[in-house]
Design goal:
2 copies of one chain form a homodimer. The first copy, chain A, is of the alpha/beta class. The first copy, chain A, is built from 14 helices and 19 strands. The first copy, chain A, folds into 3 domains: 157 residues, 3-Layer(aba) Sandwich (Rossmann fold); 161 residues, Dihydrodipicolinate Reductase, domain 2, CATH 3.30.360; 60 residues, Alpha-Beta Plaits, CATH 3.30.70.120. In chain A, strands 7, 9, 10, 11, 12, 14, 15, 16, 17, 18 and 19 form an 11-stranded mixed β-sheet that branches. The relative contact order of chain A is 0.14. At the A-B interface, helix 2, helix 6, strand 12 and helix 12 of A face helix 2, helix 6, strand 12 and helix 12 of B.
Chain lengths: 398, 398
């Protein structure tokens, strides 16, 4: 029988605990033996619940028990998760985590520590919840030069944008609705300001490039500046607005950005609505492949965590997927990045705007406004134009 | 340096040959060493082309060369592919194939032979072309009880249905167009009659159930009976018609069927148009996950084949993924299967039809017709109703 431990009995941790009991037979079939949760680390008590029997508040119970070969970290945050995960890896235990903050900030060190001790540090659940994404990148798309990733990586903001579109409400109302439904936190900043998506993008691009991509170096704009008028204008021009995490790898240089984008109707990300996540990966041979599913939620995230656990149990004494090197990835210089833009101006300013913007199309909008769709142009050129005249809003076009 | 061989230099085989040259660096990074094609088996000559240097028409050159550790089979058909693949496995070489006919008909034997010789027989490319699907099922969704699969597994028929919908043309015209574009064969039966999708479904359900699912036992209807009027009627009722391969696994019993289905707009398979494939998998924890991409084509298919090759090169002396057992899967008895139906009748027959069908909704259609949407009901009950009165057409509803 395999013995595992869970650190943190919150939403995801309790999901892992329940999954291991509920899907006992499935795990036995895949892992080759029964899987048992020997410890759950939490400072709280859960009297009367099954978890109480295996509860401990001392991490050393886990670290010092040679029977425990795999540890699940579902505490969230950097401290004390980093210390506990380091301790587990150093004690020769593989770790599976759903903690994107930890992976984005400390992944490089933890991957090195795992290699040093011939164990694995896996984090499929940290990106896209239950959607298999990191493992297919590392284990299936290995014949392709992966050139770009475009993802709806945050379900909360996708839900908000969907509701703004469907119900025609403003950002604040859609956010309040998301909070009421439990899709958004009381302090929604990590989601709505794009930090969550930024960390996930950093993890994906680190894996694809093989080098550490610092989440803090990724230009990030969230959705709080998107107005009902923006959504309506996009619709009139035939687009939907999504918060996208976009990364490219060209000649070893990384481009990465989190920003609202106008997504054309023929793009497979366009129909993705509500809390779902979807990630489009472009390879030089396979062309576009897309992975879609629930990017959050107790059961779906637990599914990804335990998928990692199974892989680790099957590969004792071995580091699965080396991850990325400590050497930072080279970024494409800011300003050199290229993109098409959708620029809203007052109808009376259209002529002037078309002189300073490489316009492809001009769409008449409500309230005496026009939307100008530009050619693909340098970000720096857009900034220069924005200094010359005031635009009502500017949104990137995928 | 790793030495591999390719059997069959047709579309996919030449794609594999070119990929190995083009993506040399990528393969070295993932496999850990250079990958070289030492032999290509074909009875034809290709003077002046790079392949000519490594061409052989004698399979024994490959089977007897101890340097060759992995063999790619891209000949298609059962004979002589079965004989050659058996020979390679028996000689201790792992095999990667794109040949769904071979896998569906002979997979059970070839998987057993691979296990016997501690090598692998992999076939990611046989289902969904370049889309990672089998590997995520076997290697990522291992914490889930997988309950159903619903897939657009044939790009040719999806293209035909898309064109019938977009252009309002009949099946024959859409087929002719697909043939002119190279999406359909001159003899289109394998695609349009659903045999291709049936084989792919059999492979997926064999993996999910762990038992051999015989493709020939899967009830299969293709798209040649779908008329422009069916498409128009579906549209009026708010649906799109897709050829779906649908499999369920309940209490160890397999349900499998290939048939045209009306797909509701909110289903993520609904927006999949043209030659693309998409597969929705439902697990008891992860809920729905979907994999989307090019289900055919030279480069995309080669990408999947070489992804298997990389996995095999990294795991010498080991059988990756045991596949399924020779024991046949138990099928749900025909007639016990349950489905909702969309039944077209003449307007004057509606009252009578609603007496013998469990109608949920009735939609007025053009030409004095009505479309009756039924409750989920037994297939056998629908058949009984069809004996009592003549329906214009009957289509399953997803």
């Amino acid at each position: 029988m395999y013995q595992i431990a869970i650190m943190g009995f919150g939403t995801i941790g309790s999901g892992v605990f329940e999954l291991v009991r509920e899907n006992k037979e499935v795990l036995k079939r895949h892992a080759g033996d029964d899987v048992n949760v020997k410890y759950v680390l939490d400072i709280r008590q859960f009297p009367g619940q099954p978890v109480q029997e295996v509860l401990t508040n001392d991490v050393n119970d886990i670290l010092n028990d040679p029977e425990v070969s795999v540890v699940v970290e579902t505490m969230g945050g950097i401290n004390p998760a980093f210390k506990f995960v380091s301790g587990a890896l150093a004690a020769g235990k593989s770790v599976a985590t759903s903690n994107k903050e930890l992976v984005a900030a400390k992944g490089t060190e933890l991957l090195a520590l795992a290699r040093e001790h011939n164990v694995s540090f896996l984090f499929e659940a940290s990106v896209g919840g239950g959607i298999p994404l990191l493992r297919p990148i590392m284990n299936a798309l290995t014949a392709d030069r992966l050139e770009s990733v475009t993802g709806i990586l945050n379900g909360t903001t996708n839900y908000i944008l969907t509701r703004m579109d469907e119900a025609g409400v403003d950002f604040a109302d859609a956010l309040a609705e998301a909070q009421a439904k439990g899709y958004a936190e009381r302090n929604p900043s990590a989601d709505v300001d794009g930090h969550d998506a930024k960390r996930k993008l950093a993890i994906i691009m680190s894996i694809i490039s093989g080098h550490f991509v610092d989440a803090e170096a990724i230009p990030t704009v969230g959705v709080s500046g998107i107005t009902a008028a923006d959504i309506a204008a996009a619709k009139e021009a035939g687009y939907d607005i999504k918060l996208l995490a976009r990364g490219e790898l060209t000649d070893g240089q990384v481009y990465a950005r989190v920003s609202p984008y106008m997504v054309p109707p023929e793009n497979p990300l366009n129909p993705v609505r509500g809390v779902f996540n979807s990630i489009l990966i472009h390879g030089n041979m396979v062309d576009d492949v897309m992975f879609y599913g629930r990017g959050a939620g107790k059961e779906a995230t637990a599914s990804a965590v335990v998928g990692d656990v199974v892989d680790e149990l099957k590969n004792p004494g071995k580091t699965i997927y080396p991850g990325w090197s400590a050497e930072p990835a080279a970024f494409v210089p800011l300003g050199d990045e290229q993109c098409a833009f959708f620029v809203r101006v007052n109808a009376m300013d259209v002529e002037e705007a078309c002189k300073i913007l490489p316009a492809v199309k001009c769409v008449g909008l409500a309230d005496d406004e026009c939307g100008i769709l530009t050619e693909v142009m340098k970000e720096s050129a857009l900034e220069e134009a924005a200094e010359k005249m005031k635009f009502i809003s500017v949104i990137r076009v995928l």
